Amino acid sequence: MEIKFKKASLTEVECDVLVVNLFEKVKTPGGATGAVDKALDNLISAYVIKKEGFKGKLNETYVLPTHGKIPADKVLLVGLGKPEDFNLNKIREISSKVIRKTRGLKAKTVCTILHGAGTAGLEASQCAQMIAEGSLLGIYDFDKYKSKKEDDDKKKTLKTLEIVEFDEDKQEGVRQGIEKGVIIANGTNKARDLVYEPACAATPAKLAEEALAIEGLETRVIEKDEAQKMGMNTYLAVSYGSSQPPKFIHMKYTPSGKAGKKIAVVGKGITFDSGGLDLKPPAAMRMMKEDMSGSAATIGIMKAIAELKPDVEVHGIIAACENMPGASAYKPGDVLTAMNGKTIEVDNTDAEGRLTLADALYYAVKLDVDEIVDMATLTGACVVALGQYAAGIMGNDQEFIDALIDAAGAGGERFWQLPLYDDFKDDIKSDIADIKNTGGKYAGASTAGIFLQEFVDKKRWAHIDIAGTAYIDKEIKELPKGATGSGVRAILNYILK
Question: In the chain, which end has fewer C-beta atoms inside a 10 angstrom radius, N or C?
Answer without folding.
Answer: C
